[in-house]
Specification:
This protein is mostly helical and 80 residues long. The chain has one domain. 61% of the residues lie in helices and 0% in strands. It is built from four helices and no strands. Helix 2 runs parallel beside helix 4 and helix 3 runs antiparallel to helix 4. It is globular and about 30 Å long.
Length: 80
Amino acid sequence: MKIYCEPLSWIYTTFKPYCHRIGINLMRDDLKFIERTLIDIPINARRKVMHDYTKEWLQESSEGAGRRRANSFLRQFKGH
């Protein structure tokens, strides 16, 4: 039995450029982490979660703190 999964290519084609425009510098490890985590998040919730991910990132004044905050936020959804 094959289960349909939404292609995660939008992370690279839409989400990454959006982040760049708003001042979030996603690194390759960030993108891999996002991709691995989104597999466990219901398809209908993924885009909303990523919107909230960017909001979490932007609440910190430094890139490192923003990355940690956003990744911690994203870890909450792992396994749901």
